[in-house]
Design a protein that fits this description.
heterodimer, A: alpha/beta, Rossmann fold, globular, B: alpha+beta, 3 domains, 19 helices
């Protein structure tokens, strides 16, 4: 069953007086539980595609269905609710909240969902343990290494049990050993939580972790190379 | 809770910036608190430390025949009866004063002689207030009671210096008594007081009983009353209303025995209003059997009913003799009244003699009549005569601000009053201009502080814009995670709210410290009217909860409204655009 369905997706950005096309008519289907990578060179449209799937950017044309809902027709409040309840984000720059410690960062989406304190604590504790940061639970992001920060970001993305986790170049700011560990962790979470993972990368070393690879170039999906 | 936690922690991220901005806000709040407390202090001084002694919180003022200087009511017990069951009244004092010319050693000057009742006992609180308001530098308040000294008085140091007199010296005074007669007396300086209020410098205090004696009051008569009450702001108007209601007058009546050529019969002497309108009405109502309206309308002329005239054996032009028991004297009062007219019909009653109120009030006030004896039916004026009968006194309408009050007294001065006017007023209407002055001071202060706050709030907006700019990616991240626009906006507004609350708390503490510091400085203004704004030679501040809370709420409201717009703009950033932000 497809959890993401994209038809004829176009996205254009205005740049001064000109219009820059970022996506030129993308068709894509992603099944539940996939561990899929979108690859392509810089400026090919990977981030734009993830942003549109993740409902943080909007399509200029085409249709995008996430979890059975056509997102182009939703209001900002509905889209925000969809992001909170169905989608988890992992950013290249981690984007943790600096004034909250590791535990609070992970717990943050649950508190936005108005979960009770006990429920949020229990779920966050489980995730802190799963990403191996129990000892660092009281540390603020500034006191963590890049790899540890990305682990926090993964835990935060997974804490709400989302149907989809979108990761934009999750290893780009990490050394190769840490990057590999993060990808291992994501794959383990994919197996453990049965969550659909879609991540973008332009690093060929990352590809061996993906079960499905979608290649994008100049805003169009070219072909799907064989999975590792 | 999450938003509060985030807002409070975010406040601590930019400590220096927020401390600088918070300090500016705290200074603004401190200025507002100090200024508000100062203007409220001025109002308190005017009302509770000056007006309170001049008029009391509530005043019952009497003016016989409308004479401004003739502040007398002939039945003290009657008026005290109207205030006896009022628990809010703390003190009821006779407010008696007179202008006099004082002759000292080689110099003379005008003074105001004020009667003080030191014998009735005074609470510690009241004594403290008196000591604060009038500091004795020589002598003691007890000295004014000293019977072995001739008219002992307390005089201000400035006046004593001007008159060139010292303690125990004698000052001669010339004054006009209650009844317009010029009098002279000797006052002995028993004490000298110091007062920063220039307007209190001509005041000379004399024991109340002696003052009344000098002015010609009899023991059962009273001057105007000043009432000091609990919580005047809350109770004054209501109390004045109740007293006013109880002071509604009845008809002034003298129950007498009248004798003529052929005998003596009981009768009632009724005063009638002698203004032109009333006289015209009376002329229309009465049919005369003898005499003329012209003679009967004279000041001492009377209308005698025909039946009563027959019994007495008198006719127009004769004289009748009136005799009645007095309320406060043992001997009866006797008076001869010329019969101006005999009334054939239209009289108010067969034994009621009508008399012009001018002459009637002379009799009535000088010799208050006793109540009707047993078996005598009290007279009740009704029908057409209800509006024509002279009342016991004229109760002036209540007024509620200085303008109405001033107008009332202009009317009093214009009219020719025959009876005693009674006016019940509160210090808030006799001096509502002081409240206006306080409001004006508050508005001036507020305007100045609002300008200051406008500058500070530019800082708030600027700081918030900088903060939002610095945290744009963070806004993008929390929006991407699922925080709603309204929550992001509220997070920034809460930051401003907390900054304002903490700054206001600091400002209040700072304001109180400044007030404490300023009130430690002593001033000695010589002959400067501003001295009246000092208490014990120090600036006086009176902070109020409502004043401070109002200032803080105003500042919070302004800050939150100002923060709203940049906060909303930050919250409305599309998440993808916010995440792309570099800066």
């Amino acid at each position: 069953m497809n959890i993401i369905e994209i038809r004829e997706l176009k996205k254009e950005y205005p740049l001064g007086n000109t219009i820059v096309p970022a996506l030129r008519g993308v068709d894509l289907e992603v099944e539940e539980g996939e561990f899929m990578s979108i690859i392509g060179p810089s400026g090919s449209g990977k981030t734009t595609l993830l942003n549109v799937i993740g409902c943080i950017d909007f399509a200029t044309a085409g249709s995008v269905t996430v979890g059975g809902r056509e997102i182009t027709t939703l209001s900002d409040t509905q889209v925000t609710d969809l992001r909170l309840n169905k989608i988890g984000f992992i950013f290249q720059n981690f984007n943790l909240i600096p004034v909250l410690d590791v535990f609070e960062n992970i717990e943050f989406p649950l508190l936005l969902m108005k979960k009770s304190g006990a429920e949020a604590r229990k779920r966050a504790e489980k995730l802190v343990e799963e990403v191996g940061l129990k000892e660092f639970a009281a540390h603020r992001p500034a006191e963590l290494s890049g790899g540890q920060r990305q682990r926090v970001a993964i835990a935060r993305a997974l804490v709400t049990n989302p149907e989809i986790v979108l990761a934009d170049e999750p290893t780009a700011n990490l050394d190769s050993v840490t990057g590999a560990a993060i990808l291992e962790l994501m794959r383990r979470m994919n197996e453990l939580e049965k969550t659909t993972f879609v991540f973008s990368t332009h690093d060929a070393n990352v590809l061996k972790y993906a079960r499905r690879i979608v290649k994008i170039k100049d805003g169009l999906i070219e072909k799907e190379p064989a999975a590792a | 809770m999450l938003l509060i936690r985030l807002s409070l922690r975010n406040l601590l991220r930019q400590k220096r910036r927020n401390i600088l901005l918070g300090s500016a806000m705290a200074i603004g709040v401190a200025i507002l608190v100090v200024a508000n407390s100062f203007s409220h202090g001025i109002s308190d001084i005017m009302f509770n430390k000056i007006m309170r002694y001049v008029t009391g919180h509530v005043a019952i003022r009497f003016n016989e025949r409308g004479g401004i200087m003739r502040e007398i009511f002939r039945d003290r017990a009657r008026v005290l009866e109207t205030i006896k069951d009022e628990p809010v009244i703390e003190e009821a004092d006779e407010s008696i004063g007179m202008f006099a010319r004082a002759i000292g050693n080689g110099r003379s000057d005008n003074i105001i002689l004020i009667g003080v009742n030191t014998r009735k006992g005074i609470s510690e609180k009241a004594m403290k207030e008196v000591r604060e308001a009038f500091r004795l530098v020589e002598g003691s308040w007890k000295d004014v009671e000293n019977a072995s000294i001739e008219n002992p008085v307390i005089i201000s140091a400035e006046k004593a210096r001007y008159l060139n007199v010292k303690r125990n010296d004698v000052v001669r005074v010339r004054f006009r008594n209650m009844f317009g007669q010029d009098q002279a007396a000797r006052l002995t300086i028993a004490g000298i007081m110091k007062n920063d209020n220039i307007f209190m410098q001509p005041v000379v205090f004399l024991e109340l009983a002696r003052e009344k004696e000098l002015l010609g009051y009899r023991p059962y008569e009273t001057g105007s009353l000043s009432l000091k009450i609990k919580d005047p702001q809350k109770n004054a108007f209501a109390l004045a209303g109740r007293i006013h209601e109880r002071l509604k007058p009845g008809a002034a009546v003298i129950y007498a025995s009248v004798s003529g050529r052929s005998g003596s019969v009981p009768a009632v002497l009724l005063g009638y209003k002698s203004d032109d309108g009333s006289k015209k009405k009376i002329a229309g109502m009465l049919k005369l059997a003898g005499g003329s309206f012209e003679k009967a309308f004279k000041k001492d002329g009377v209308f005698v009913p025909a039946g009563l005239a027959r019994k007495l054996g008198v006719s127009a032009g004769d004289t009748i003799k009136l005799s009645y028991d007095r309320k406060f004297e043992k001997t009866p009062k006797e008076a001869l009244l010329p019969v101006g007219a005999v009334c054939g019909s239209g009289c108010p009653g067969e034994n009621i003699i009508l008399m012009n109120d001018s002459g009637f009030y002379d009799l009535y006030y000088e010799n208050m009549p006793a109540a009707p004896g047993p078996g005598v039916k009290p007279y009740a004026a009704g029908g057409a005569w209800g509006g024509l009968a002279a009342p016991e006194w004229i109760l002036l309408k209540r007024t509620f601000n200085t303008e109405e009050y001033r107008k009332k007294y202009q009317d009093i001065a214009r009219n020719k009053w025959k009876g005693t006017t009674i006016d019940v007023s509160t210090m808030y209407e006799t001096a509502s201009d002081i409240l206006k002055l306080e409001s004006v001071l508050n508005i001036i202060t507020l305007s100045a502080v609002l300008v200051l706050f406008f500058i500070i709030l530019l800082g708030v907006v600027n700081t918030l814009r900088m903060t939002i700019r610095e945290r744009t990616r963070e806004i993008g991240a929390v929006r991407a995670i699922g925080m709603q626009r309204a929550e992001v906006r509220n997070m920034f507004i809460l930051e401003t709210f907390f900054l304002t609350v903490f700054s206001s708390a600091a400002g209040i503490i700072m304001g109180f410290a400044v007030m404490r510091g300023l009130s430690l400085i002593t001033f000695h203004p010589q002959d400067n009217p501003l001295g009246m704004l000092l208490v014990n030679s120090r600036l006086y501040f009176l902070p109020t909860f409502t004043g401070i809370a109002g200032s803080v709420l105003l500042i919070i409201a302004i800050a939150v409204v100002t923060a709203w717009f940049p906060a909303r703009r930050g919250a409305n950033l599309p998440p993808a655009q916010a995440l792309r932000h570099f800066g």
